[in-house]
Amino acid sequence: VTSFAEFDSYVRAREREYIDELKVLIRQPTVSAQGIGIPETARIVLDRTKKRGGINAEALRVDGGPPTIVGETGRGERTLLIYNHYDVQPPDPLDEWATPPFEPTERDGFLFGRGVSDNKGNLLARLQAIEAYRATIGELPLRIRVLYEGEEESGSAHLAAFVARYGERLRADGCIWEAGYKDAAGRPTISCGLKGIAYVELRVRGAIKDAHSSLATIVPNAAWRLVWALATLKNPNDEITIDGFMDAVRPPTAADRELLERLPFDEQGMLRIHGIKRFVRGLEGFELRKKHFFEPTCTICGIVSGYTGAGSKTVLPAVASAKIDFRLVPDLTPEKVTGLLRAHLDRRGFEDIEVVPGHGEPPSRWPTDSVTAKAAVEACRGAYGTEPVVYPLLAGSGPMAQVCDTLGIPVAGFGSGNAASANHAPNENIAIVDYVDHIRAFGRFLHTFAGRALA
Ligand SMILES: [Zn+2]
Fold first, then answer.
1. How many whole angstroms from 118 Cα to the centroid of ligand 1?
2. DSSP bridge pairs for 77
3. Which of 77, 267, 331, 432 is the most buried (most CB within 10 A)?
4. What are the strands, taking DSSP E only, across 174-277?
5. What's the 404 CA to ligand 1 centre distance in angstroms?
6. pLDDT digits (tens, 9 = 90+) for 269-317
7. If 0-12 CB within 10 Å is exposed, 13-18 middle and 19+ buried, where does residue 360 land?
């Protein structure tokens, strides 16, 4: 049974140093979508991994991909894999930032800058926790492996190949995923999976060019064609009606249902934030939470066709297109979804509608009572002095299946973000106290994951 009092004072005494070290990382832009600053950031991260984390690490590439950092340190019965990414989303729209995205700025106890929450902050905080552990508790009671990716924000195109090539260096008994957030009520949260995603574009071409709308009597209209096809994908009760789609959805287990019963979910806060009077289908309580965490989505992200400018233009559109994203739960995969969608449209005579697949990632879900998840609960309880909220998964997506499903590693995620961290958006931020608390929680996690007790 170990007290973390000395660990905590060690960490708190170094708050300035830790935040300054994070600022160095934030000042270096790393926009994978635009190929900006990738090798430069990889060099800084590799240096910090070795010096701050004491990890024997190197940067490797597969098939012309960006540098991926892997490394190992410590010895023990259990092995932990830490997954983070060092790239960030583009900072646009720039004029909505109160201070420039790559000039880390402190205001009212918060640190603002692109990547402070997603995901450079968590990456560095965990290395700082490893060092603080060694300085105050002693030798690491476990083996730690790290995997730092440089193209997560643009689809992790080389990660599956990387895992296929270097999987032996990533094997572990548990994985800590990139991030985690306090909820709107300020409770720490832990999540044990991610939804997947399938992004598609539907394209329709009618006539060879736009026509005078008086010809609508006899010339087919691409916009109507698209609307009719879209209307077959989902009904007004918000049920996805693609043939075979819902059959692939794994129903919640008894344990899942029990978790959902207890899961805190601020319905009034959500209604207020979104300025709506009721949720889809008028759902509330258990059924609302079940739909949010255990059901897939089919979302029209945008539709384009014809004339939408000022005044009127009586035109008959020759082309129409829609972008759609599906958030996936087990056992739906991007390939399965595009296959089902194609067959569904063909069966209804929409063979002329082109389905163009875009970015896709399968879902990944792990038990909420795995060794990893249980150790995370204990660590958060110890650091925050409150009971963390355990989510079955986050409604967002990421390359978790490529790593954890491929290698069979039960996962949990917790981190330094807050409910208004504005990931991917202007004014991305973390509270400095949350950053320090993540270091405190992560130090404890190294201990609980190794099977040791906290005082
Ligand atoms: Zn991220």
1. 5
2. none
3. 432
4. 174-176, 189-191, 193-194, 196-205, 211-212
5. 16
6. 889 888 999 999 999 999 999 999 999 999 999 999 999 999 999 999 9
7. buried
